[in-house]
Amino acid sequence: MRLVVVSAGLSVPSSTRLLGDRLAAATAAQAPADVQVVELRDLAVEIAHNFTNGFPGRALAGAFDAVAGADGLIVVTPVFSASYSGLFKSFFDALSVSDPEALAGKPVLIAATGGTARHSLVLDHALRPLFSYLKAVVVPTGVYAASEDWGAEGLDGRVERAAGELAALTAGAATARPLPRRDSFEEVTPFEERLAALRPTG
Amino acid sequence: MQFGIFSVGDVTPDPTTGRTPTERERIKAMVAIALKAEEVGLDVFATGEHHNPPFVPSSPTTMLGYVAARTERLVLSTSTTLITTNDPVKIAEDFAMLQHLADGRVDLMMGRGNTGPVYPWFGKDIRQGINLAVENYALLHRLWREDVVDWEGKFRTPLQGFTSTPRPLDGVAPFVWHGSIRSPEIAEQAAYYGDGFFHNNIFWPADHTKRMVELYRARYAHYGHGTPEQAIVGLGGQVFMRKNSQDAVREFRPYFDVAPVYGHGPSLEEFTEQTPLTVGSPQQVIEKTLSFREYAGDYQRQLFLMDHAGLPLKTVLEQLDLLGEEVVPVLRKEFAKNRPADVPDAPTHSSLLATAKAKEGARA
Question: What is the mean pLDDT of chain B?
């Protein structure tokens, strides 16, 4: 399967990226996967230009295609001001303008990192509703990693559990997911149908 | 092939002086630009239609009627006429009137507009945008072709025994283009009627324009109007020129950097690389414009956006001199090369009249 990690980590190296990599490795261990990582930091300028221009630059368009074509998605954001980062949200805003159905029916594992565990509900208060709105199938277990978790017990287990859920959903979704939307250029409503739909009845 | 200019009619401060023209100055500047277009040998002047500041052209046929009285050859057009929020009956009347006054030098481009609040301001529902374009145009099409129309639709009060006056000049409806940047439905509409399709082209990468034009061409053939290559295509373009390309870049950059549509975004270099915008020498403009044919095929109408982002009138008139003297004559020659003989020119009143007469003759 094609597994895509979207990481909104900003520093290099980044604990957000590290969490994304761990989740990807754990998922790939359960179901063979080609993993591609989309680093939003590298796309930050093109994401901003997408808002001013109305169309994505080449690298951003490539990232949109990768995400839309993925069988499963792992999304990881640092917590900024009690929510996902603006860059993270902007990427998905731009994606959904470009292709409103890009995430429809797609299994998505949500994850976040923060300095303290106090923000762990960001997963269920911010990320889950966002991806529900985008019609994704969000796996039940989200993974939050505070700084302290990297030296404590428990993170491994949550990573394994979430990865197992994503792998299982991806296997099921491959058949259950609606067919990808046909390109609007290939599927034109014949003009007579449009006219007929407007004709008064009776 | 036709070459011309299209104006948005924005009132924008000149970023190099901070001065904002008055509405009167801008309106008069648009007229001066239109007259200049004819003087330098261009074929078409098109004005936008807007109903909110900072734009002035809310009443296109008023402006075009004034320009018509002061020109001899120039085709007067729009970019675009809002088929969604204008009453199609009033469009039929206004443009037929203009057609008579201008001795047939009139066509128009249908568009849905890009300003959401215009719909409620004119009592319409934006969610019905495509349906409004479909129904209103279907009525407009009939009003110009049938002397007495009985009509009932979803969005307008019914008409019983209605005759739109004046009747189109010589019984020939003005040629219609349909403009759309991203709606395949509109390319389909243009193809269905055998009307022209115009892609604004200027803010988008070429592959996007290519897909829209290809769809229109394929559907034009599907509806039996001719081969895909014979479909009537128009494209936008956007240029700023000086003899020396470095001078063009230096002079245009302050306007580009804060331009209302794309300012504060990518650099001028990035934007010219990704879109049809050309800032450079007349030769560079020629090369870039000729390259449009690679993705759009042999086409009929090329309109340039020349007067925006606060460029002073004097500069715009200089640009038009360069366009008319150094660019368009070369483009006419180059575009004519290898152009298949069966690719038609853009329809004009006289060509449409000749076609109508030939049809009548065949019937008689």
Answer: 96
Percent of chain B clearing pLDDT 90 (strictly above): 91
Q: Do A188 and B211 touch (CB under 8 A)?
A: no
Which pLDDT does position B362 carry in this prediction?
A: 86
Is residue A18 a contact partner of residue A60, using CB atoms and an 8 Å limit? Answer: no
User: Is B262 in contact with A52 (Cβ distance < 8 A)?
Assistant: yes
8 Å CB contact between B133 and B176: no
Give B114-129 as a DSSP string.
Answer: S-TTHHHHTT--GGGH
Asked if B153 and A191 come within 8 Å (Cβ–Cβ), the reply is: no
- Give pLDDT tens digits for B43-72: 999 999 999 999 999 999 999 999 999 999
Burial of residue B74 (number of CB atoms within 10 Å: 0-12, 13-18, 19+): buried
Contact B208 A189 (CB under 8 A): no
Domain boundaries, chain B: 2-363
Whole-number pLDDT of residue A175: 47
How far, in Å, are B189, B191, B262, B331 from residue B298 at the CA level?
21, 17, 29, 12
Confirm or reject contact between B166 and chain A (CB < 8 A): no
User: Average of pLDDT values for A69-81?
Assistant: 97
**Alpha carbon distance B79, B48 (integer Å):** 4
Q: How confident is the model at residue B88 (pLDDT cuts 50, 70, 90)?
A: very high
- What single letter denotes the amino acid at residue B364? A
In CATH, what class is B2-363? alpha beta
User: Average of pLDDT values for B334-344?
Assistant: 96
| Structure ipTM over 0.95, yes or no | no
Domains and CATH numbers, chain A: 2-198 (3.40.50.360)
Cα separations (Å) of B66 from B30, B32, B197?
A: 11, 11, 27
- Structure pTM? 0.89
Query: Residue with structure tokens 């106090």?
Result: A118
pLDDT digits (tens, 9 = 90+) for B222-274: 999 999 999 999 999 999 999 999 999 999 999 999 998 788 888 999 899 88
Select from B138, B264, B271 the Cβ nearest to the Cβ of A195: B138
Best of A43, A45, A47, A53 to disrupt the B interface (most B CBs within 10 Å) is A53
Classify the C-alpha dihedral B58-B63-B64-B65 as positive or negative.
positive
Measure Cα distances from B201 to B66, B180, B216 in Å: 29, 9, 15
User: Closest Cα of chain B to A47: distance in Å?
Assistant: 10
